[in-house]
Every structure is written in structure tokens, then in C-alpha cells.
Amino acid sequence: MSTRASEGMVSGFSLQLEMFEDLVMPSGIVHHLSTMKTRSVRDDDIFVCTYPKSGTHWVWEILSMVVAGRPEYAKHWQNSAHLDSRTEEELDSLPSPRILFTHLLPRLLPRDIWDRKCHVINVQRNPKDAVVSYFVQHTNQNWVDKSREAAFTGTWANYVDAHIKGNIPYDSVLNHSLCWNRFPQDHPDVPFLQVHFEDLKKDDVTEVKRLAEFINHPLPYEVYKQIADACSFSKLKHAHQHIKDQTFHNQWREGSSGYFRKGESGDWKNWFTVAQSERFDRVYQRTYSHSDLK
């Protein structure tokens, strides 16, 4: 009997996928997920929770600078703090306060987060833009197997179909957004802030200030402006390519722009056909009409 993971691979994924509980996940992280709920956390841990390609790098770097109190890039890039793929020992070596990021749903995360009432930040983006950016990543990234073959070798139409069905790594962006939107209701005692990619594009200084105040690290307004400037798309891309330690970089196909493609909003209109967009919208509405999803 086929699973959504196997169907995803039939659609064009060379990246190995498998089911974890009822979700499609990259096989390479499943051994981490099996112990995730019982992992220990620290009281001052900060969790950045996103669907892939929704502004993770951006917000993680902003928070790193806010905690440092100055517009200085962290030595390592954000994958050094990836909860889903780093061992507990690797994460234990990070100094406090740790800024950890994850693409997991709330129900898969360490229970200690809720008990210790850690600060949780959810970053969201227009889901169609996230799909486009994820497609470009998967067709250019070698991922964990280090081979020269891209993680996804199918067509854009194949990818949209797989995404709508949730047959992709980290499952459906629609269910992911729904679960995180419900987070304040499910965990009312946990400090929670939701940030939107589009708001960061519109007024990054204001969003930097919101983030700083949320984690109780207020700074002079001038420093907010400096951090926002240092974390602009072009400067952050340059830092990741030429300044930061490259230890935790994944493999990319030659000529790829890597994690930093355009950093724009609305590019989905150049990719989705009218029929694909309408189908996506129908599934979006159907997903949000099912209040029993968790």
C-alpha cells in the first residue's frame, strides 16, 4: 500500500521521504524526530517556528543581532541551530540564550517548551510564494545525500500537485499554517508572537522592534535601524556567502543562488497557472474549514 511519502517520490523527489506519524518527512531527520518530544530545553530558549522558505533565515539573524545588542552577524549560519537536524549534544554546545529554529508542527516539538514557557515565534508567508521558493530550493539543492542529483527532478506541475496533497518534505504548508494559527488557543500560557514575511518587507524596522520587545531585549531605536539594514536581503546574502562559517551549508547545484533567491513577495503570480491557483485556493479554504486538524 502506497503512502503519501512514496507518492511524493513518484512525483519527482529523489530525496528520500517517509512517514512520521501522519506526516511526510525527509528520511534524514526521522531519527531526530523519534526523541524530539522528550528533549530538554532551557528556560531562555527562543524558538523560531516556520514552514520552509517563509523567512526563517531573516528572522533568525535579526534575533541573533537583537540578543547580541548590535548589528553583527552570528559566526555560524542558522543551520547550526536547526532543532530538526542537529543532535541534542550539538545544540547543547550553543550558548544561552539559544535561538533555535524548526519547521515542525507544535505537536512534534519538545514538551518542555510548554512547561518552561519559552518564547515562541511563528513566521508565516503567503503560502503560494513559499511553494515557489521551496520548488526552486528542491530543484537546486542536493540535500543530505551529497549526490549531484537535485532533491526534486519533476516538473513544476508535478510539484504543485504534490504540494497540494502534502506529499512533500514537512508536509502541507496549509496544514502547517493552520496549526500555528491555532497555537495561542492551544497553548494560551506560552509567550507567542506571529510575524509575517510581508510585514517585514513593508516595515522591517518596526518588525525588528516588535521582535526585540517580545523577547525582552529592547534596544535604542537607532540600533533597530542598523539591524534592519544589516539584515536586508542583499547584505544578508553577502554575509552568508562571504562572511559566515560554511560548516553547516548544504550542497547546491553549480550556478544556484542558494538559499537567497529573490526575497520578494508576489512572485507566485509568475509561476502558478490560473487553474493551479484556483485549485490551491479551494484546498486552502477546505483545510481551514476543518477545525479538528491539529
Describe the protein's architecture and organization.
- With 294 residues, this protein is α/β, with parallel strands linked by helices.
- It has helices at residues 4-11, 30-33, 56-68, 88-92, 112-116, 127-138, 156-165, 173-181, 183-186, 197-202, 204-214, 221-230, 233-242, 274-288; strands spanning 17-20, 23-26, 46-50, 99-102, 119-124, 192-196.
- The strands form two sheets. The protein has a four-stranded parallel beta sheet with strand order 4-3-5-6, with helices on both faces.
- Strand 1 and strand 2 (23-26) form a beta hairpin.
Fill in the keyword field for this structure:
294 residues, alpha/beta, Rossmann fold, two-stranded antiparallel sheet, 41% helix
C-alpha geometry = globular
Q: What is the number of beta strands?
A: 6
How confident overall, as mean pLDDT?
88
Which secondary-structure class do the elements indicate? alpha/beta
Largest sheet: 4 strands, parallel
